[in-house]
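Message: I would value a second opinion on how I read folds in token form. Give me a protein, with the fold worked out from its sequence. Write it directly below this note and I will take it from there.
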Amino acid sequence: MTKILLLSSLILLTACSSGYGHQAKGENLSVYFMDKTDEGKAEKVAFYWKENGLITGKKQDLQIVKLSESHQLNIIKSFEGGQSIPFEERKLLLNLQTKLEEEIFSDGLEIIICNDKFESIHKIN
């Protein structure tokens, strides 16, 4: 019994110490959020992704970070090449940012393209 409790505690600690925050998870999409008060926003983003056909066949990770007066949505880079974003993709991301501000993030939103550790590579604005 002690071994089971110890193993359960270890699994729970590992899940909570990922460094990416709390998590709302779906099929191939995980939305991490640093501030527990953003759980509802994370669920809405996941629903938006699904409803708008943004979930691909590949695993996708997003992260919501609450700033002092707005939010930041970190998206892991999925395009090939260096740090620059192709014009058409940048245009689509700006449209996405506007839609998410209208529907979920009324306090403002900035989309950031990140590496697989959620380290900033490129700001959309």
Summary: Helices lie at 2-16, 39-51, 87-103.
